[in-house]
Design goal:
20% of the residues lie in helices and 34% in strands. It is an alpha+beta fold and 370 residues long. The chain has 3 domains: 137 residues, 2-Layer Sandwich (Gyrase A, domain 2), CATH 3.30.1360; 82 residues, Aminomethyltransferase beta-barrel domains (Alpha-Beta Plaits), CATH 3.30.70.1400; 74 residues, Aminomethyltransferase beta-barrel domains (Elongation Factor Tu (Ef-tu), domain 3). The strands form 4 sheets. The protein has a 6-stranded mixed beta sheet with strand order 10-11-12-9-3-13, with helices on both faces. A 6-stranded antiparallel barrel has the order 14-17-16-15-18-19. A hairpin with a 2-residue loop joins strand 6 and strand 7.
Length: 370
Amino acid sequence: MTDTPSSLKRTPLHAVHVSAGAKMVPFGGWDMPVQYTGIIEEHRCVRSAVGLFDISHMGEFEVRGAGALAAVQGLTTNDASALAVDQVQYSVLCYPSGGIVDDLTLYRLADDHYMLVVNASNIDKDWAWVTDGGRGGTWTNASEATALLAVQGPRAEGLLQRLADRDVITVPYYHFVRGKVAGIPCLISRTGYTGEDGFELYVPAERSVALWNALMDDGRRDGIQPIGLGARDTLRLEMKFALYGNDIDETTNPLEAGLGWVVKPAKGDFIGRAAIEAARAAGVKRKLVGIEMAERAVARHGYDVVKGGRSVGVVTSGSFSPSLERCIGIAYVASDVAAVGTEVEVDIRGKAQAARVAKTPFVPSHAKKA
């Protein structure tokens, strides 16, 4: 069934995007801005200055109580017990088969209080999954009550520092503080999906328009622009950040997706642990790699990767890179052709286009990690 405008969900900032002339498109059941002035211009704005994203379509689940940690530990692959209060962790939910339910960020809000931030298209599926499998804590779905804005780029820190009622410069990467931005209460998280320094701001939905307007007004001196999902996709692709539904899903396991670093079997049992460890013991047969096209030809999701006349993999994401001014992609390829520099071809509408396995991230990360 095709989504119609009337059936699509809207973020609290929907009217702001429409009035700004954004091109709106269906995404994961939501009516979202794909671009304002243009994907390439918006992409370069984030890399050189600062961009503002509405990502309020993401889902937020909270779990509290004495059993909260045990519930999270049994659901996620990473070791949540390593989290300090005010710290964030990237993690994965898996099926018993080892396939991926979703990837997420996990926040430790207090001693016995955690928040899982999940992908917009998976909110309903994930909510059913965690409430069925995450026994021992008290769960709350805070998605509708919470708006989420991302301020990303080399000038993001200066903008936030001017508007916040507390120091944000000293907030480490993948940590957060609570405070006010432009007088509006926020959870201020030094995280993002762009590879640039920046913050994600969790704010009550009814205050999101005021916060958006304050950031846009004060950010004019920094060259701020609103950024749509199109540039968000090219920015994350340059970093080789996985997109659920494209690069990872129920048919992929974390090891082949390059996410073995968030799988911690030593912590104890969790859903999918046995299957993932069996896959580890057997050896990963394919790997998610970056590819760079020799010519200006876009390798799109589902295109075959070929070497020596045989199919050796499949493209999961691909686009023109505004930073590199060449076409790049992500693909699962057989482990024996996964080494950086390996020459391959991509079958683009019946024509073999030259490519090679590339080092990733495609561009340096500027996320503030120290």
